[in-house]
Amino acid sequence: MIGVGKMKLYSNVLDKPLSKGKQEVSLSAFALLFSELVQYNQTQVDNIAELERRLDDAGYAVGARVLELLCNRDKGNRRETRLLGILSFVHSTVWKVLFGKVADSLEKGTEHEDEYMISEKELLVNRFISIPKDMGTFNCGAFVAGIVKGVLDNAGFPAVVTAHFVPIEGQHRPRTTILIKFAHEVLKREARLSQ
Amino acid sequence: MAAIYSLYIINKSGGLIFYKDCGTKGRMDTNDSLRVASLWHSMHAISQQLSPVNGCSGIDLLQADTFDLHCFQSLPGTKFFVVCEPETPHMESLLRYIYELYTDYVLKNPFYEIEMPIRCELFDINLSQAVQSDRVALLGR
Question: Where does this protein reside within or beyond the cell (chain A) (predicted)?
Answer without folding.
Answer: Endoplasmic reticulum; Golgi apparatus, cis-Golgi network
